[in-house]
Amino acid sequence: MKMNLLLLFLAALVVRASSQPPNPLPLPYDYYSLVFQWAKSVCNGRIPCTKPTFPAFTVHGLWPQRYHFPPLDDCGLYPQSTQFNNASFPETLLCGNPTTVGAVRTTIHASTGFWPTVQCNRNRTGTLQLFQIYLCFNKITNVPMDCPVVQKGCINPIDYPRP
């Protein structure tokens, strides 16, 4: 898991560095979020998926963020073709069991050294579930940082659905 996260961090930095103009203008955002989504929570939400899910987090995108809401945009679900198959979520959180935002954040902090943002959504029966995990990066130095937002739309307990 650590190796996958490290590779994703490096890929994000390479993309950022290669696309940056020589003398960038002031940026209208405060930091970046590398967002991962749990495939099952995407497909059992409001809009069902046409293809079966697999037991992995997928990369939703690298998004500019502001410290204060509203977010810069709402692009909806990212196309299915960009899904990234990575290692299973750490064993300290058991898939299919209720958990808490704190348990998810602590598990990720133990692996990365940084505090993420956890986002929840509701499945079709109304149960709150783990939906997305945000890893944050400084916009100037591109180094990981603690995310300023703890959670989005979560109230404990939350479900961690089986694929």
From TrEMBL:
One Gene Ontology biological process: RNA catabolic process
Secretion signal span: 1-19
Keywords associated with the record: Hydrolase, Lyase, Nuclease, Signal
PROSITE patterns: RNASE_T2_1
SUPFAM superfamilies tied to this protein: Ribonuclease Rh-like (SSF55895)
GO MF annotations, alphabetized: ribonuclease T2 activity; RNA binding
Entry-linked PANTHER family: RIBONUCLEASE T2
Homology family: Belongs to the RNase T2 family.
Identification of the protein by name: Ribonuclease 1
Protein source organism: Quercus suber (Cork oak)
Lineage of the organism: Eukaryota, Viridiplantae, Streptophyta, Embryophyta, Tracheophyta
